[in-house]
Amino acid sequence: MKINLIQVPYDLGEEQVGMGKGPIRFIQAGADRNLLDQGFEVKVETIKRDVPAKDDMLKKIANINANLAKSIKKAISEGYFPLVLGGNCNTILGILAGLPPSKIGIIYFDAHGDFNTPEISISGFFDGMPLAIATGQCYPDLLTHIGNMSPIPESHTMHVGARDLDPKERELLENSEVQVVTTDELKEDIEMRILHSALTKLHPQVQEVYLHIDIDVIDPQEAPGVNYRTPNGLSLDEMEKAIKTIAAHFRIKAAALTAYNPDHEEDEKTLQTGFRLLNVIADAVASSLTSK
Ligand SMILES: [Mn+2]
Fold first, then answer.
1. What is the CATH number of domain 2-291?
2. How far is the CA of 139 from the centre of ligand 1 (A)?
C-alpha cells in the first residue's frame, strides 16, 4: 500500500505553535521511516498556508484546509492512502472536502465532543467545533470556502470516546442523529459489541469512512502530550481493537491523527503512542483492502 503522510503543522491558523508542533515532531522522530519499516511505500508532504499572518483566523483556517483538500484529492487520484498528521481537529474539514462525496461516513474519536457551536460554546474555542461544522450545525460558509463541500449528514456520523462534554454540547449531540459510543461503553465491552452494532447502523447509508483520531481519546497515562488531559481514557489496546473493528466494517478512505502537543510531552510517551496508532491504522487499512 502507498501512504501519503500529510502534515498540517498549524494551530488555529498559526504555524508550528502549540498543537501545530505535533506533526513536525512526528516526522522528525521518523514517523515515515517507521511506516517504511512496516513495508509501506511512504510519501511525506507538508501543507502550506498561503494567506498572510495578518488575515483573520477563519480566513487562515479556510486557506489551510482548502490546500489540504487539494492534496487529499491528488493523493486519492494517484492511489495513495491519505494519512494526515493534524495540528487541530479542524483538519477534518479539508480532508472531507478532498474526498469523493458519495456515501462517506465519519468515525470521530475524541475525549471531547467537538460539537460546540458559537451560540452554545462556553469558551468560544474554534477547535471545539469541528464535528459540528462538518455536520452542518454552524459556519456553513466555511465549508463553501474550503472546497464547495456539503455537510456530512448526521446519520453518517459516529462519535467515539467522549468523556468530557459541555452541558449544552451534550444536549445538541444527544438530540442529533450522530451515534455516540462513549469511552465507558467501549471499556466495559471487551468484544466491542456496542461499537459493532453502532457500525452496523451506519451500513445502509455509508460505504466508506473517514477515521479521525484526536490523540486525547487515549488515556493521559499513554498520551500525556495534549492540551486538555482527560482521565479515564481508552488504552492503546482498546483503541487498536476499535480500529480493527471499524476496518472490518468499512473501507477507511482517509485517516487523521491530531492534537499532539509536544510542549506537554512526558518521556516521549505520546510520540510512541502516535507511532503505534499510525501503524495500526496502516495495517488495518491494508488488510481491509486485501480482504474486500
Ligand atoms: Mn478534538
1. 3.40.800.10
2. 17
